[in-house]
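Hi,

I'm pasting everything inline rather than attaching a file, because the server keeps stripping attachments. The sequence lines come first, and each chain or strand is labelled.
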Amino acid sequence: MANSQRTARYRELAAALRAEVRSGVYSEGGRLPSEEALAVAHDVSRGTVRQALALLRAEGVVTSRRGTRRVVLEQPRVQSFAALSSFTRWARSLGEEPGGAVVASQWRAADAVEAERLRLAAGARVLWVLRLRTLGGEPVMVERTVYPEPVGELVASLPPDAVSVTEGLEAHGVVLADADHTLDLTLADAEDARLLDCPLAAPLLRERRRTSDPTGLPVEWSEDRYRAGTVAFTVHNSLATTALARTRGDA
Amino acid sequence: MANSQRTARYRELAAALRAEVRSGVYSEGGRLPSEEALAVAHDVSRGTVRQALALLRAEGVVTSRRGTRRVVLEQPRVQSFAALSSFTRWARSLGEEPGGAVVASQWRAADAVEAERLRLAAGARVLWVLRLRTLGGEPVMVERTVYPEPVGELVASLPPDAVSVTEGLEAHGVVLADADHTLDLTLADAEDARLLDCPLAAPLLRERRRTSDPTGLPVEWSEDRYRAGTVAFTVHNSLATTALARTRGDA
DNA sequence: TAGTGGTCTAGACCACTCG
DNA sequence: GAGTGGTCTAGACCACTAC
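And the predicted assembly:
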Protein backbone atom coordinates (compact mmCIF):
# COMPACT_ATOMS: atom_id res chain seq x y z
CA MET A 1 0.00 0.00 0.00
CA ALA A 2 2.28 2.68 1.27
CA ASN A 3 5.28 4.03 -0.45
CA SER A 4 8.12 2.81 1.71
CA GLN A 5 11.04 3.68 -0.55
CA ARG A 6 13.62 5.90 1.08
CA THR A 7 14.25 9.30 -0.41
CA ALA A 8 17.40 9.39 -2.48
CA ARG A 9 20.32 11.11 -0.83
CA TYR A 10 20.76 13.57 -3.63
CA ARG A 11 17.13 14.64 -3.27
CA GLU A 12 17.57 15.14 0.44
CA LEU A 13 20.70 17.14 -0.23
CA ALA A 14 18.95 19.23 -2.85
CA ALA A 15 16.11 19.92 -0.43
CA ALA A 16 18.59 20.92 2.26
CA LEU A 17 20.43 23.29 -0.06
CA ARG A 18 17.15 24.72 -1.36
CA ALA A 19 16.12 25.43 2.20
CA GLU A 20 19.46 27.05 2.97
CA VAL A 21 19.16 29.30 -0.04
CA ARG A 22 15.63 30.21 0.91
CA SER A 23 16.56 30.95 4.49
CA GLY A 24 19.40 33.18 3.44
CA VAL A 25 22.35 31.05 4.50
CA TYR A 26 23.55 31.54 0.93
CA SER A 27 22.48 34.93 -0.24
CA GLU A 28 21.29 35.89 -3.65
CA GLY A 29 24.20 36.59 -5.94
CA GLY A 30 26.49 34.78 -3.51
CA ARG A 31 28.42 31.60 -4.10
CA LEU A 32 27.83 28.06 -3.01
CA PRO A 33 30.63 26.02 -1.44
CA SER A 34 32.60 23.88 -3.87
CA GLU A 35 31.28 20.47 -4.81
CA GLU A 36 34.15 18.87 -2.96
CA ALA A 37 33.38 20.84 0.19
CA LEU A 38 29.70 19.90 0.01
CA ALA A 39 30.62 16.27 -0.50
CA VAL A 40 32.78 16.24 2.62
CA ALA A 41 30.29 18.22 4.68
CA HIS A 42 27.40 15.91 3.83
CA ASP A 43 29.46 12.76 3.70
CA VAL A 44 28.56 11.77 0.17
CA SER A 45 30.53 11.42 -3.02
CA ARG A 46 31.00 14.23 -5.44
CA GLY A 47 28.73 12.45 -7.90
CA THR A 48 25.84 12.63 -5.49
CA VAL A 49 26.49 16.30 -4.86
CA ARG A 50 26.42 16.89 -8.60
CA GLN A 51 23.09 15.11 -8.92
CA ALA A 52 21.62 17.37 -6.25
CA LEU A 53 23.03 20.47 -7.89
CA ALA A 54 21.68 19.40 -11.28
CA LEU A 55 18.20 19.53 -9.78
CA LEU A 56 18.73 23.02 -8.43
CA ARG A 57 20.22 24.01 -11.74
CA ALA A 58 17.13 22.94 -13.66
CA GLU A 59 14.93 24.82 -11.22
CA GLY A 60 16.92 27.97 -11.69
CA VAL A 61 18.10 28.12 -8.09
CA VAL A 62 21.79 28.23 -9.01
CA THR A 63 23.88 28.72 -12.11
CA SER A 64 27.08 26.94 -12.92
CA ARG A 65 30.11 27.66 -14.93
CA ARG A 66 33.40 25.89 -15.23
CA GLY A 67 36.14 27.44 -13.20
CA THR A 68 34.09 29.29 -10.62
CA ARG A 69 31.75 28.37 -7.86
CA ARG A 70 28.04 28.19 -8.44
CA VAL A 71 26.11 31.41 -8.13
CA VAL A 72 22.87 31.63 -6.20
CA LEU A 73 20.11 33.12 -8.34
CA GLU A 74 17.08 34.99 -7.24
CA GLN A 75 14.55 32.76 -5.59
CA PRO A 76 12.57 31.19 -8.43
CA ARG A 77 8.97 30.18 -8.30
CA VAL A 78 8.89 26.56 -9.27
CA GLN A 79 6.19 24.17 -8.28
CA SER A 80 6.26 20.47 -7.94
CA PHE A 81 4.89 18.49 -10.81
CA ALA A 82 1.98 17.51 -8.60
CA ALA A 83 0.96 21.11 -8.00
CA LEU A 84 0.94 21.68 -11.74
CA SER A 85 -1.12 18.62 -12.53
CA SER A 86 -3.78 19.35 -10.01
CA PHE A 87 -5.81 22.51 -9.78
CA THR A 88 -6.75 21.55 -6.25
CA ARG A 89 -3.18 21.22 -5.09
CA TRP A 90 -2.20 24.41 -6.79
CA ALA A 91 -4.98 26.26 -5.02
CA ARG A 92 -4.05 24.79 -1.67
CA SER A 93 -0.42 25.77 -2.18
CA LEU A 94 -1.65 29.33 -2.59
CA GLY A 95 -3.69 29.10 0.56
CA GLU A 96 -6.88 29.53 -1.43
CA GLU A 97 -10.02 27.48 -1.27
CA PRO A 98 -10.41 25.38 -4.41
CA GLY A 99 -13.80 24.41 -5.72
CA GLY A 100 -14.85 22.29 -8.61
CA ALA A 101 -18.03 20.92 -10.02
CA VAL A 102 -18.82 18.75 -12.98
CA VAL A 103 -21.08 20.71 -15.30
CA ALA A 104 -21.49 18.01 -17.91
CA SER A 105 -20.03 14.63 -18.67
CA GLN A 106 -20.55 12.05 -21.36
CA TRP A 107 -19.08 9.04 -23.05
CA ARG A 108 -18.53 9.66 -26.71
CA ALA A 109 -16.30 8.90 -29.66
CA ALA A 110 -12.98 10.76 -29.75
CA ASP A 111 -12.70 13.33 -32.49
CA ALA A 112 -9.60 13.48 -34.65
CA VAL A 113 -7.62 15.82 -32.41
CA GLU A 114 -8.49 13.99 -29.22
CA ALA A 115 -7.64 10.63 -30.71
CA GLU A 116 -4.31 11.91 -31.92
CA ARG A 117 -3.43 13.51 -28.61
CA LEU A 118 -4.43 10.47 -26.57
CA ARG A 119 -2.80 8.11 -29.07
CA LEU A 120 -6.08 6.30 -29.62
CA ALA A 121 -7.70 5.07 -32.77
CA ALA A 122 -10.09 7.60 -34.28
CA GLY A 123 -13.54 7.14 -32.84
CA ALA A 124 -12.35 5.37 -29.69
CA ARG A 125 -14.65 5.69 -26.73
CA VAL A 126 -13.59 8.46 -24.36
CA LEU A 127 -15.07 10.20 -21.37
CA TRP A 128 -15.54 13.92 -21.87
CA VAL A 129 -15.98 16.09 -18.79
CA LEU A 130 -16.72 19.78 -18.47
CA ARG A 131 -15.85 21.30 -15.10
CA LEU A 132 -16.00 24.73 -13.60
CA ARG A 133 -13.18 25.58 -11.21
CA THR A 134 -13.40 28.20 -8.54
CA LEU A 135 -11.00 29.90 -6.17
CA GLY A 136 -12.60 31.19 -2.98
CA GLY A 137 -16.00 30.77 -4.59
CA GLU A 138 -15.15 32.87 -7.62
CA PRO A 139 -15.24 31.16 -11.03
CA VAL A 140 -11.72 31.12 -12.42
CA MET A 141 -11.39 28.44 -15.02
CA VAL A 142 -13.35 26.20 -17.34
CA GLU A 143 -11.85 22.78 -17.90
CA ARG A 144 -12.75 20.43 -20.73
CA THR A 145 -11.03 17.12 -20.28
CA VAL A 146 -11.01 13.90 -22.25
CA TYR A 147 -9.99 10.59 -20.71
CA PRO A 148 -9.28 7.33 -22.51
CA GLU A 149 -11.59 4.49 -21.64
CA PRO A 150 -9.89 2.81 -18.68
CA VAL A 151 -9.10 6.09 -16.94
CA GLY A 152 -12.55 7.40 -17.78
CA GLU A 153 -14.09 4.48 -15.92
CA LEU A 154 -12.25 5.56 -12.79
CA VAL A 155 -13.19 9.20 -13.23
CA ALA A 156 -16.82 8.27 -13.77
CA SER A 157 -16.76 6.30 -10.55
CA LEU A 158 -15.73 9.35 -8.53
CA PRO A 159 -18.44 11.39 -6.85
CA PRO A 160 -19.42 14.24 -9.19
CA ASP A 161 -18.64 16.81 -6.53
CA ALA A 162 -15.17 15.42 -5.89
CA VAL A 163 -12.90 18.42 -5.59
CA SER A 164 -9.75 16.76 -6.82
CA VAL A 165 -9.90 14.36 -9.72
CA THR A 166 -6.15 13.92 -9.68
CA GLU A 167 -6.15 12.68 -6.13
CA GLY A 168 -9.01 10.35 -6.95
CA LEU A 169 -7.02 8.86 -9.79
CA GLU A 170 -3.91 8.50 -7.68
CA ALA A 171 -5.91 6.64 -5.08
CA HIS A 172 -6.66 4.12 -7.81
CA GLY A 173 -3.00 3.74 -8.68
CA VAL A 174 -2.85 6.02 -11.70
CA VAL A 175 0.55 7.73 -11.74
CA LEU A 176 1.06 10.98 -13.61
CA ALA A 177 4.63 11.42 -14.77
CA ASP A 178 4.89 13.75 -17.75
CA ALA A 179 2.96 16.69 -19.12
CA ASP A 180 3.09 18.92 -22.14
CA HIS A 181 1.51 22.33 -21.83
CA THR A 182 0.68 24.72 -24.62
CA LEU A 183 -0.20 28.26 -23.65
CA ASP A 184 -1.96 30.77 -25.80
CA LEU A 185 -4.93 33.06 -25.88
CA THR A 186 -8.52 32.55 -26.88
CA LEU A 187 -11.91 34.24 -26.61
CA ALA A 188 -14.85 33.20 -24.47
CA ASP A 189 -17.60 31.39 -26.32
CA ALA A 190 -21.17 31.44 -25.07
CA GLU A 191 -20.63 28.53 -22.71
CA ASP A 192 -17.41 29.99 -21.30
CA ALA A 193 -19.09 33.34 -20.76
CA ARG A 194 -22.01 31.80 -18.95
CA LEU A 195 -19.90 29.64 -16.68
CA LEU A 196 -17.19 32.17 -15.95
CA ASP A 197 -19.65 35.02 -15.66
CA CYS A 198 -17.78 37.16 -18.15
CA PRO A 199 -18.72 38.88 -21.41
CA LEU A 200 -18.90 36.96 -24.63
CA ALA A 201 -15.58 37.11 -26.48
CA ALA A 202 -13.72 38.14 -23.32
CA PRO A 203 -10.05 37.18 -23.63
CA LEU A 204 -9.04 34.01 -21.81
CA LEU A 205 -5.66 32.41 -21.19
CA ARG A 206 -5.79 28.92 -22.63
CA GLU A 207 -3.72 25.97 -21.43
CA ARG A 208 -3.89 22.76 -23.42
CA ARG A 209 -2.31 19.94 -21.53
CA ARG A 210 -1.63 16.32 -22.17
CA THR A 211 -0.58 14.26 -19.20
CA SER A 212 0.97 10.81 -19.42
CA ASP A 213 1.86 8.00 -17.08
CA PRO A 214 5.39 6.61 -16.68
CA THR A 215 4.97 4.28 -19.63
CA GLY A 216 4.18 7.22 -21.89
CA LEU A 217 0.53 6.34 -22.13
CA PRO A 218 -1.65 9.46 -22.22
CA VAL A 219 -3.95 9.73 -19.23
CA GLU A 220 -5.78 12.93 -20.00
CA TRP A 221 -6.05 15.66 -22.57
CA SER A 222 -7.45 18.89 -21.31
CA GLU A 223 -8.20 22.37 -22.45
CA ASP A 224 -8.39 24.85 -19.60
CA ARG A 225 -9.50 28.44 -20.03
CA TYR A 226 -8.62 30.95 -17.34
CA ARG A 227 -10.19 34.31 -16.84
CA ALA A 228 -7.83 37.18 -17.50
CA GLY A 229 -5.78 38.19 -14.51
CA THR A 230 -6.35 35.05 -12.49
CA VAL A 231 -3.25 33.14 -13.45
CA ALA A 232 0.23 33.42 -14.92
CA PHE A 233 2.70 30.75 -15.95
CA THR A 234 6.38 30.96 -15.22
CA VAL A 235 9.09 28.95 -16.93
CA HIS A 236 12.78 28.76 -16.27
CA ASN A 237 15.12 27.62 -18.97
CA SER A 238 18.81 27.74 -19.65
CA LEU A 239 21.57 26.76 -21.99
CA ALA A 240 21.82 23.49 -20.08
CA THR A 241 18.14 22.63 -19.81
CA THR A 242 15.46 23.54 -22.27
CA ALA A 243 11.96 22.18 -22.37
CA LEU A 244 10.30 25.28 -23.66
CA ALA A 245 9.31 26.24 -27.16
CA ARG A 246 7.70 29.21 -28.79
CA THR A 247 5.55 28.22 -31.74
CA ARG A 248 3.51 29.93 -34.36
CA GLY A 249 -0.06 30.45 -33.16
CA ASP A 250 -2.21 27.36 -33.50
CA ALA A 251 -1.11 25.75 -36.76
CA MET B 1 38.41 33.61 -31.58
CA ALA B 2 36.70 30.40 -32.45
CA ASN B 3 35.22 27.95 -30.05
CA SER B 4 37.56 25.03 -30.34
CA GLN B 5 36.28 22.92 -27.48
CA ARG B 6 35.19 19.49 -28.55
CA THR B 7 31.59 18.52 -28.09
CA ALA B 8 31.06 16.27 -25.11
CA ARG B 9 30.47 12.64 -25.92
CA TYR B 10 27.17 12.52 -24.12
CA ARG B 11 25.91 15.45 -26.19
CA GLU B 12 26.96 13.74 -29.39
CA LEU B 13 25.24 10.60 -28.23
CA ALA B 14 22.10 12.52 -27.33
CA ALA B 15 22.08 14.15 -30.74
CA ALA B 16 22.51 10.78 -32.41
CA LEU B 17 19.65 9.26 -30.45
CA ARG B 18 17.46 12.29 -31.06
CA ALA B 19 18.08 11.91 -34.78
CA GLU B 20 17.29 8.21 -34.65
CA VAL B 21 14.02 8.88 -32.88
CA ARG B 22 13.17 11.58 -35.38
CA SER B 23 14.00 9.39 -38.35
CA GLY B 24 11.87 6.58 -37.04
CA VAL B 25 14.57 4.08 -36.11
CA TYR B 26 12.87 4.00 -32.73
CA SER B 27 9.18 4.51 -33.22
CA GLU B 28 6.83 6.43 -31.02
CA GLY B 29 5.63 4.34 -28.15
CA GLY B 30 8.49 1.94 -28.79
CA ARG B 31 11.40 1.15 -26.54
CA LEU B 32 14.99 2.23 -26.56
CA PRO B 33 17.79 -0.31 -26.16
CA SER B 34 19.01 -0.77 -22.60
CA GLU B 35 21.61 1.58 -21.20
CA GLU B 36 24.12 -1.23 -21.16
CA ALA B 37 23.48 -2.03 -24.82
CA LEU B 38 23.83 1.62 -25.78
CA ALA B 39 27.06 1.85 -23.82
CA VAL B 40 28.56 -1.10 -25.66
CA ALA B 41 27.28 0.02 -29.05
CA HIS B 42 28.72 3.50 -28.69
CA ASP B 43 31.77 2.45 -26.77
CA VAL B 44 31.19 4.66 -23.75
CA SER B 45 30.49 3.97 -20.12
CA ARG B 46 27.01 3.62 -18.76
CA GLY B 47 27.41 6.92 -16.95
CA THR B 48 27.88 8.73 -20.23
CA VAL B 49 24.84 7.03 -21.70
CA ARG B 50 22.83 8.14 -18.71
CA GLN B 51 23.95 11.73 -19.15
CA ALA B 52 22.77 11.63 -22.74
CA LEU B 53 19.46 10.09 -21.79
CA ALA B 54 18.95 12.68 -19.05
CA LEU B 55 19.01 15.35 -21.74
CA LEU B 56 16.41 13.56 -23.81
CA ARG B 57 14.39 12.98 -20.68
CA ALA B 58 14.25 16.69 -19.88
CA GLU B 59 13.24 17.44 -23.44
CA GLY B 60 10.40 14.99 -23.27
CA VAL B 61 11.80 12.73 -25.98
CA VAL B 62 11.78 9.63 -23.78
CA THR B 63 10.37 8.58 -20.44
CA SER B 64 12.06 6.37 -17.94
CA ARG B 65 10.97 4.06 -15.23
CA ARG B 66 12.84 1.63 -13.12
CA GLY B 67 12.52 -1.92 -14.29
CA THR B 68 11.59 -1.35 -17.92
CA ARG B 69 13.24 0.13 -20.94
CA ARG B 70 12.77 3.75 -21.83
CA VAL B 71 9.74 4.59 -23.88
CA VAL B 72 9.90 6.90 -26.88
CA LEU B 73 7.38 9.70 -26.56
CA GLU B 74 5.69 11.63 -29.26
CA GLN B 75 8.05 14.00 -30.97
CA PRO B 76 8.15 17.08 -28.75
CA ARG B 77 8.62 20.62 -29.93
CA VAL B 78 11.57 21.94 -28.01
CA GLN B 79 13.76 24.73 -29.16
CA SER B 80 17.30 25.56 -28.32
CA PHE B 81 17.83 28.20 -25.73
CA ALA B 82 19.20 30.44 -28.47
CA ALA B 83 15.99 30.24 -30.50
CA LEU B 84 14.03 31.24 -27.42
CA SER B 85 16.25 34.17 -26.55
CA SER B 86 16.20 35.64 -29.99
CA PHE B 87 13.13 36.62 -31.95
CA THR B 88 15.23 36.63 -35.08
CA ARG B 89 16.45 33.09 -34.64
CA TRP B 90 13.01 31.90 -33.77
CA ALA B 91 11.62 33.41 -36.94
CA ARG B 92 14.36 31.88 -39.05
CA SER B 93 13.75 28.48 -37.52
CA LEU B 94 10.17 28.82 -38.73
CA GLY B 95 11.32 29.79 -42.17
CA GLU B 96 9.74 33.20 -41.81
CA GLU B 97 11.27 36.55 -42.51
CA PRO B 98 11.94 38.43 -39.26
CA GLY B 99 11.87 42.19 -39.13
CA GLY B 100 12.57 44.59 -36.34
CA ALA B 101 12.87 48.29 -35.91
CA VAL B 102 13.61 50.49 -32.96
CA VAL B 103 10.64 52.75 -32.41
CA ALA B 104 12.06 54.63 -29.46
CA SER B 105 15.06 54.41 -27.20
CA GLN B 106 16.33 56.39 -24.25
CA TRP B 107 18.64 56.35 -21.29
CA ARG B 108 16.74 56.81 -18.09
CA ALA B 109 16.60 55.90 -14.42
CA ALA B 110 15.30 52.40 -13.65
CA ASP B 111 11.95 52.31 -11.93
CA ALA B 112 11.40 50.10 -8.91
CA VAL B 113 10.37 47.00 -10.84
CA GLU B 114 13.14 47.29 -13.40
CA ALA B 115 15.77 47.84 -10.74
CA GLU B 116 14.56 44.83 -8.81
CA ARG B 117 14.47 42.60 -11.87
CA LEU B 118 17.91 43.67 -13.09
CA ARG B 119 19.31 43.57 -9.57
CA LEU B 120 20.36 47.21 -9.77
CA ALA B 121 20.07 49.99 -7.26
CA ALA B 122 16.86 51.95 -7.63
CA GLY B 123 17.38 54.79 -10.05
CA ALA B 124 20.36 53.20 -11.80
CA ARG B 125 20.87 54.31 -15.36
CA VAL B 126 19.38 51.89 -17.88
CA LEU B 127 18.73 51.87 -21.59
CA TRP B 128 15.07 51.48 -22.47
CA VAL B 129 14.22 50.38 -25.99
CA LEU B 130 10.87 49.98 -27.70
CA ARG B 131 10.88 47.75 -30.76
CA LEU B 132 8.29 46.53 -33.19
CA ARG B 133 8.81 42.99 -34.45
CA THR B 134 7.38 41.68 -37.67
CA LEU B 135 7.05 38.32 -39.35
CA GLY B 136 6.86 38.45 -43.11
CA GLY B 137 6.20 42.17 -42.89
CA GLU B 138 3.21 41.80 -40.57
CA PRO B 139 3.47 43.36 -37.12
CA VAL B 140 3.44 40.60 -34.55
CA MET B 141 4.95 41.80 -31.33
CA VAL B 142 5.86 44.89 -29.38
CA GLU B 143 8.96 44.57 -27.26
CA ARG B 144 9.91 46.89 -24.42
CA THR B 145 13.35 46.04 -23.13
CA VAL B 146 15.53 47.47 -20.40
CA TYR B 147 19.30 46.92 -20.35
CA PRO B 148 21.69 47.66 -17.50
CA GLU B 149 24.33 50.26 -18.27
CA PRO B 150 27.22 48.21 -19.68
CA VAL B 151 24.97 46.10 -21.89
CA GLY B 152 23.00 49.17 -22.88
CA GLU B 153 26.19 50.78 -24.20
CA LEU B 154 26.63 47.83 -26.54
CA VAL B 155 23.02 47.89 -27.64
CA ALA B 156 23.19 51.61 -28.28
CA SER B 157 26.24 51.07 -30.45
CA LEU B 158 24.36 48.71 -32.76
CA PRO B 159 22.80 50.14 -35.89
CA PRO B 160 19.15 51.04 -35.13
CA ASP B 161 17.93 48.83 -37.94
CA ALA B 162 19.90 45.82 -36.74
CA VAL B 163 17.54 42.88 -37.05
CA SER B 164 19.02 40.81 -34.26
CA VAL B 165 20.09 42.47 -31.04
CA THR B 166 20.97 39.13 -29.52
CA GLU B 167 23.48 38.36 -32.22
CA GLY B 168 24.91 41.83 -31.88
CA LEU B 169 25.44 41.27 -28.17
CA GLU B 170 26.99 37.88 -28.71
CA ALA B 171 29.42 39.39 -31.16
CA HIS B 172 30.60 41.56 -28.28
CA GLY B 173 31.09 38.59 -26.02
CA VAL B 174 27.86 38.77 -24.05
CA VAL B 175 26.74 35.23 -23.24
CA LEU B 176 23.12 34.50 -22.41
CA ALA B 177 22.74 31.49 -20.15
CA ASP B 178 19.48 31.58 -18.20
CA ALA B 179 16.03 33.00 -18.65
CA ASP B 180 12.83 33.24 -16.68
CA HIS B 181 9.63 33.70 -18.62
CA THR B 182 6.25 34.70 -17.24
CA LEU B 183 3.27 34.30 -19.51
CA ASP B 184 -0.08 35.91 -19.08
CA LEU B 185 -2.62 38.05 -20.84
CA THR B 186 -2.97 41.78 -21.18
CA LEU B 187 -4.86 44.33 -23.23
CA ALA B 188 -3.49 46.63 -25.89
CA ASP B 189 -2.89 50.19 -24.77
CA ALA B 190 -2.93 53.05 -27.26
CA GLU B 191 0.71 52.58 -28.20
CA ASP B 192 0.33 48.83 -28.64
CA ALA B 193 -2.75 49.33 -30.78
CA ARG B 194 -1.03 51.83 -33.01
CA LEU B 195 2.10 49.76 -33.51
CA LEU B 196 0.40 46.40 -33.90
CA ASP B 197 -2.40 47.82 -35.95
CA CYS B 198 -5.08 46.33 -33.74
CA PRO B 199 -8.02 47.75 -31.78
CA LEU B 200 -7.52 49.42 -28.46
CA ALA B 201 -7.91 46.89 -25.63
CA ALA B 202 -7.41 43.97 -27.99
CA PRO B 203 -6.16 40.95 -26.01
CA LEU B 204 -2.43 40.29 -26.24
CA LEU B 205 -0.29 37.43 -25.00
CA ARG B 206 2.33 38.90 -22.72
CA GLU B 207 5.76 37.42 -22.06
CA ARG B 208 7.92 39.01 -19.42
CA ARG B 209 11.44 37.74 -19.59
CA ARG B 210 14.60 38.23 -17.64
CA THR B 211 17.76 36.88 -19.20
CA SER B 212 21.03 36.44 -17.34
CA ASP B 213 24.62 35.62 -18.17
CA PRO B 214 26.50 32.64 -16.73
CA THR B 215 27.44 34.54 -13.59
CA GLY B 216 23.80 35.19 -12.83
CA LEU B 217 24.04 38.85 -13.78
CA PRO B 218 20.85 40.04 -15.49
CA VAL B 219 21.46 41.14 -19.05
CA GLU B 220 17.99 42.23 -20.07
CA TRP B 221 14.48 42.58 -18.77
CA SER B 222 11.82 42.62 -21.41
CA GLU B 223 8.08 42.75 -21.77
CA ASP B 224 6.88 41.39 -25.09
CA ARG B 225 3.28 41.61 -26.25
CA TYR B 226 2.13 39.31 -29.04
CA ARG B 227 -0.96 39.73 -31.12
CA ALA B 228 -3.54 37.04 -30.51
CA GLY B 229 -3.05 33.97 -32.64
CA THR B 230 0.51 34.69 -33.66
CA VAL B 231 2.30 32.66 -31.04
CA ALA B 232 1.95 29.86 -28.53
CA PHE B 233 4.34 28.61 -25.88
CA THR B 234 4.92 24.95 -25.20
CA VAL B 235 6.45 23.53 -22.05
CA HIS B 236 7.35 20.00 -21.12
CA ASN B 237 7.67 19.01 -17.52
CA SER B 238 7.76 15.81 -15.55
CA LEU B 239 8.10 14.26 -12.15
CA ALA B 240 11.85 14.29 -12.65
CA THR B 241 12.26 17.79 -14.01
CA THR B 242 10.13 20.77 -13.22
CA ALA B 243 10.87 24.28 -14.27
CA LEU B 244 7.33 25.46 -14.65
CA ALA B 245 5.04 27.20 -12.24
CA ARG B 246 1.48 28.40 -12.33
CA THR B 247 0.99 31.53 -10.27
CA ARG B 248 -1.86 33.74 -9.29
CA GLY B 249 -2.32 36.49 -11.87
CA ASP B 250 -0.01 39.42 -11.29
CA ALA B 251 -0.29 39.88 -7.53
C1' DT C 1 49.20 28.09 -10.75
C1' DA C 2 45.62 26.61 -7.63
C1' DG C 3 40.88 25.87 -7.43
C1' DT C 4 36.63 24.70 -9.56
C1' DG C 5 33.17 22.66 -12.35
C1' DG C 6 32.66 19.42 -16.65
C1' DT C 7 33.35 14.92 -18.41
C1' DC C 8 34.20 10.08 -18.20
C1' DT C 9 35.14 5.48 -16.32
C1' DA C 10 34.35 0.98 -13.82
C1' DG C 11 32.11 -1.09 -10.70
C1' DA C 12 28.65 -1.95 -7.05
C1' DC C 13 24.09 -2.63 -5.05
C1' DC C 14 19.24 -1.86 -5.02
C1' DA C 15 14.15 -1.44 -6.45
C1' DC C 16 11.23 -2.46 -9.65
C1' DT C 17 8.90 -4.84 -13.83
C1' DC C 18 7.67 -8.69 -16.19
C1' DG C 19 7.41 -13.22 -17.86
C1' DG D 1 14.65 -14.87 -11.36
C1' DA D 2 16.53 -12.18 -15.18
C1' DG D 3 16.70 -7.72 -16.96
C1' DT D 4 16.52 -2.85 -16.38
C1' DG D 5 16.88 1.72 -14.69
C1' DG D 6 18.05 4.40 -10.15
C1' DT D 7 21.55 5.47 -6.91
C1' DC D 8 26.12 5.89 -5.16
C1' DT D 9 31.15 5.56 -4.95
C1' DA D 10 36.18 6.60 -5.95
C1' DG D 11 39.07 8.17 -8.84
C1' DA D 12 40.91 10.35 -13.07
C1' DC D 13 41.80 14.05 -16.37
C1' DC D 14 40.52 18.28 -18.59
C1' DA D 15 39.00 23.28 -19.49
C1' DC D 16 38.35 27.28 -17.59
C1' DT D 17 38.58 31.21 -14.03
C1' DA D 18 40.87 34.05 -11.14
C1' DC D 19 44.71 35.47 -8.83
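Chain A has nine helices and eight strands.

If the labels don't parse on your end, tell me and I'll reformat.
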